[in-house]
Write a structure and sequence with these properties.
about 350 residues, alpha+beta, SH3 type barrels, 10-stranded antiparallel β-sheet, 5 helices, about 15% helix
Length: about 350
């Protein structure tokens, strides 16, 4: 009996020692199930772009198309508005005396003009210069417009005198008669010059909505929105836009968004004065039909110096109105009406005004 007890103790001791050895081995050499495997980056398929995230974002930014999702002001760095020339601002009585309201029945003559310098007969006396004082709005390098008197007429430039008695020669395309539109002739989507702060200095703005004599405008220099009476506005667009409005689905258009810019879009449905469309950046929307313009490339015979075009500024999908300054082959140079900036574009990046 004693011998059996000793054998049992020895067997238990042997089992204990054997289990300890196995535990040491498992600690020193992990099993395949518990071994920590270092993760390796997956290989990039040949047909995909697996650049670093930062580089991918750069490429996406370059390809981004402007629209409601990607507003123009976020894609392009906007210059801070310059300080106005307050000393050149005309007093209210001088400005009020200079404003002429367009007479009903004569305004359609705008359509046959390249600019406003000779419309309605009143500006022809500038060229004749019969001693009459002619007043105009002239744009200076701050992209704002000031009341001035014409003192000398040249072939392409006119010398004008501002309220502070300073004189400057200014190209005809940067001059406008002080012509107030009639409320029924104000067109949504068109540009107007607005006496923004009631100080005789005019700022370029675009009308996005109108009701009666009240206009909702967006100032192009800073995107500020304001509701004004039409009497604060002066005609800016050298002639009414000739591009037609959307008529049916599937049409390529330029659509005026709430930020005051025209973006490329395609119509999905046109019904009861409302257009359902989708922008090229993916945004879908319903807009009044008067906030659309058919997008078509101007015919070759229209590509003449001085013609008005819409240009895809910076190639990002936001279109600006401008004068055609030069046409060579498949490229043109535009001078934008809003800030006098020039840009060379492919003809395919143009649209009818």
């Amino acid at each position: 009996m004693q011998r059996i007890f000793v054998y049992s103790i020895c067997l238990m001791l042997l089992i204990f020692l054997t289990s300890c050895e196995k535990e040491k081995e498992s600690i020193a050499t992990p099993s395949p199930k518990t071994a920590v495997v270092k993760k390796q980056a997956p290989k990039c398929p040949k047909h995909k772009n697996c650049a670093e995230p930062e580089k991918q974002l750069d490429e996406v930014a370059k390809k981004t198309i402007a629209g409601p999702i990607h507003p123009y002001r976020k894609l392009f760095e906007q210059a801070k508005p310059a300080t106005p020339y307050m000393e050149k601002a005309a007093p209210e009585n001088k400005l009020r005396a200079a404003i002429i309201q367009a007479a009903e029945g004569k305004l359609p003559s705008l359509a046959g003009r390249i600019d406003l310098i000779s419309i309605l007969g009143r500006m022809e006396s500038i060229d004749e210069h019969k001693g009459k004082t002619e007043r105009v709005l002239a744009m200076l390098d701050d992209n704002r417009w000031y009341l001035a008197e014409v003192v000398e007429v040249g072939q392409e430039e006119l010398k004008v005198k501002f309220y502070d008695e300073s004189k400057k020669s200014i190209h005809r395309t940067l001059l406008r008669p002080v012509l107030r539109p009639r409320p029924e002739h104000v067109t949504v989507g068109d540009e107007y010059l607005i006496d923004r702060n009631d100080n005789g200095i005019f700022h370029l703005a675009r009308v996005v909505f109108k009701k009666g004599h009240r206009l909702n405008v967006i100032y192009m220099e800073d995107g500020y929105k304001e509701s004004i009476m039409y009497k604060k506005s002066v005609l800016f667009s050298p002639r009414p836009r000739s591009a037609s409005r959307a008529e049916f689905s599937g049409q390529p258009v330029l659509a005026l968004w709430d930020d005051g810019y025209f973006y490329r879009a395609v119509t999905d449905k046109v019904e009861d004065g409302i257009v359902s469309l989708h922008f090229e950046d993916g945004q879908k929307a319903e807009l009044p039909i008067d906030r659309t313009r058919l997008r078509s490339v101007p015919a070759p015979h229209f590509l003449q110096k001085g013609a008005l075009m819409m240009g895809n500024r910076g190639g990002k999908g936001a279109y600006f109105a401008g004068w055609l300054e030069e046409h060579q082959g498949k490229q043109v140079t535009l001078r934008y009406l809003s800030d006098n900036h020039t840009e060379t574009l492919d003809v395919e990046e143009l649209a009818n005004f």
